[in-house]
Write a structure and sequence with these properties.
The structure holds two protein chains of two kinds. Chain A is of the alpha/beta class. Chain A has ten helices and eleven strands. In chain A, helix 6 links the parallel strand 4 and strand 5. The longest helix of chain A has 22 residues. Chain A is globular. Chain A starts with 9 loop residues before the first strand and ends in a 14-residue tail after the last helix. Chain B is of the alpha/beta class. In chain B, about 40% of the residues lie in helices and about 15% in strands. In chain B, helix 2 runs parallel beside helix 5 and helix 5 packs across helix 6. Chain B starts with a strand and ends with a helix. The chains are: A alpha/beta, B alpha/beta. Chains A and B meet through helix 5 and helix 6 of A and helix 5, helix 6, helix 8, strand 8 and helix 9 of B. The complex binds iron/sulfur cluster (2 copies). One iron/sulfur cluster binds next to helix 7 and helix 8 of chain B.
Chain lengths: ~300, ~250
């Protein structure tokens, strides 16, 4: 196990000790608990998270309205929102399984939302965006130093909203509004209905709906988050957590001291880091091959490679 | 101090927003001038205004080719500087001056404006309207390390500046770059960074992908350069913590 897991100071399997929070969170409730704690402690004064249109309709001051048609009901459509309290955090919690452009709120968070200490959760590519913005703040005036906690989530690939619509309503034959939870695990895409029905789709079906931009991504475990987390590697109901930066280390230590999480050594749990490492390598190898193929694309002309 | 780098600032057709952004480093600017940079000439902030021989020159504004003096100053800047930095959207890409068709008072015949790279070789781009104080600061510190640093610091500065040097290969950027170089190329992953970067709120995310209001776009190039899929250097960005700390320490 090496570079595929990024740099980290420590790694554990963890879950929130907050039972109420665990009920509305995916897996170990790590992101919600961390942000709730960081809000309480004043480590951050707001967090950018992926909420839904329902949340946005109820909390219009927490989002920026784009040209979204709010009359159209679109369950599971992610809308980036800024939450300032635990109640708001919980109302917005849960993985949406389609991409939420959280970085879009990063500058405005420090402007009309008035945050001095911003929390942000995002995919590995979004963590790359955040760090690039700190080092090369070309259009991000006075933003870099306000980023107080960036939490990355493991990500194999992501879907645009319409792909989720297609998968759930067409392939799984369920209405999106009747879906309770979606999940990718054990080689399948799972759709859980509110009335208890479960539909599983083989990943073979979902692949063609993936966002093409994901296929050149070389990061699985959010190497650039202060802390990064995901369910892979830990038992059901637990999450794997990498503590990576100095900021991450200090926030994690404080949260542990306050009893926010219970943990197990990652070496002691099944399937453990080995699986994380395997999946990370699979993603990186596959996507490196994509980048390689783009050099000629079979026509002797190169497609762009963003990595220099 | 002998081991400072010398800096000049040539002001062409720009609104002074870039100058203000530089000054908005406040105490950081004073530290820069104290320890690392000897400001040789600059309208507004220095007594000397005329182009002199320097290590690094910043050029603000596009160049009006109907204005002999401006063209002359730009050429002289190139001749007398080791490194020329195009500071801000106008110098890099023309920015808002791309929309000029002349007729304005008090120089109605000044109608043709070009990004400076159309007339001279430029070494580094700092896009954006206005460029940010922090970006100017970072480039200034890196330019210092490049010219005066240890071997290790030179390598870091080279890695940091390389993407900004590569940007000089093209003198056009607007929202269209995101379309042609990122989205059309199958590279966009919907992070939303471009939305935040745009100074005029010309971009919104529609179903996970950016949508540009092209009539609002002023052609500053911020969205494209800020996008993690326009260019991304693992060598540099993975060391963000150490680099940020080094820059902050340098300005103590
Ligand atoms: S910044 Fe780049 S990758 Fe991110 S949404 Fe905009 S165009 Fe797509
Ligand atoms: S869309 Fe906005 S950020 Fe992009 S070039 Fe135009 S004005 Fe600049």
């Amino acid at each position: 196990m090496g570079a595929e897991l990024g740099k980290y100071k420590s790694c554990v399997s963890a879950r929130s000790t907050d039972k109420e929070l665990l009920k509305c969170a995916q897996d170990g409730g790590i992101v919600s608990s961390l942000f709730a704690f960081a809000l309480d402690e004043g480590i951050i004064d707001g967090a950018i998270v992926a909420a839904t249109k329902e949340f946005a309709a109820k909390n219009p001051s927490k989002v920026i309205l784009d040209s979204t048609n709010f009359d159209m009901i679109e369950p599971w459509r992610p809308i980036p929102a800024i939450v300032n309290t635990k109640a708001e955090l919980l109302a917005a919690a849960g993985t949406k399984y389609n991409i939420s452009p959280n970085v879009a709120l990063l500058k405005e968070a420090t402007r009309s939302f008035g945050l001095d200490k911003v929390g942000i959760v995002g995919t590995p590519c979004q963590m790359q965006a955040v760090r690039k913005a700190q080092l090369y703040p070309i259009g991000m005036r006075d933003v870099g130093a306000s980023i107080a906690l960036a939490v990355g989530i493991f990500c194999m690939e992501n879907f645009p909203y319409q792909s989720i619509l297609q998968l759930v309503e067409d392939h799984a034959a369920m209405k999106l509004e009747s879906v309770k939870k979606m999940e990718i695990g054990k080689g399948k895409f799972w759709v859980y209905g509110k009335r208890g029905q479960v539909v599983q789709l083989p990943l073979k079906v979902t692949h063609k709906y993936e966002q093409p931009g994901c296929h050149v991504c070389l990061d699985y475990v959010a190497n650039l988050g202060d802390i990064s987390t995901g369910s892979v590697g830990s038992p059901d109901g637990w999450s794997t957590v990498f503590v990576r930066s100095k900021i991450g280390d200090s926030v994690w230590a404080k949260a542990m001291a306050a009893g926010v999480f219970e943990t197990q050594p990652i070496e002691k749990v099944k399937p453990g880091l080995e699986l994380v490492s395997k999946l990370a390598n699979e993603k990186i190898t596959k996507n490196k091959a994509t980048l390689e193929a783009r050099k000629t694309f079979g026509v002797g002309k190169a497609l762009r490679n963003p990595y220099i | 101090m002998a081991d400072k780098i010398t800096l000049g600032y040539t002001h062409l057709s720009g609104c002074t927003g870039c100058t203000v952004a530089l000054a908005d480093n406040y105490a950081g600017l004073l530290t820069l001038l104290d320890k690392y940079v000897d400001l040789k000439y600059m309208p507004t902030l220095a007594d000397a205004r005329h182009v002199q021989k320097v290590d690094v020159s910043f050029v603000e504004g596009s160049v009006c080719i109907n204005d002999k003096l401006a063209v002359q100053e730009l050429k002289e800047t190139r001749e007398k500087s080791t490194i020329v930095v195009a500071l801000g959207g106008c110098a890099c890409y023309g920015n808002i001056t791309r929309f000029s068709r002349g007729g304005q008072q008090n120089q109605p015949a000044h109608e043709a404006y070009l990004p400076i790279g159309d007339l001279i070789k430029v070494d580094v781009f700092i896009p954006g309207c206005a460029p940010t104080p922090q970006m100017i600061r970072n480039v200034a510190v890196m330019a210092y390390l490049l010219l005066k640093g240890t071997k290790e610091q030179k390598d870091l500065a080279t890695a940091f500046l390389t993407p900004l040097m590569k940007l000089t290969e093209k003198n056009e950027a607007c929202f269209c770059e995101l379309m042609t170089q990122v989205i059309n190329q199958g590279l966009c992953m919907g992070c939303g960074t471009c939305v935040a970067a745009c100074p005029v709120n010309a971009i919104t995310m529609e179903y996970g992908k950016p949508n540009g209001e092209r009539d609002l776009c002023i052609k500053c190039g911020a969205c494209y350069s800020q996008c993690p899929r326009s260019w991304f250097s693992f060598d540099v960005v993975e060391n963000y913590e150490a680099i940020n700390e080094a820059i902050m320490a340098a300005l103590q």
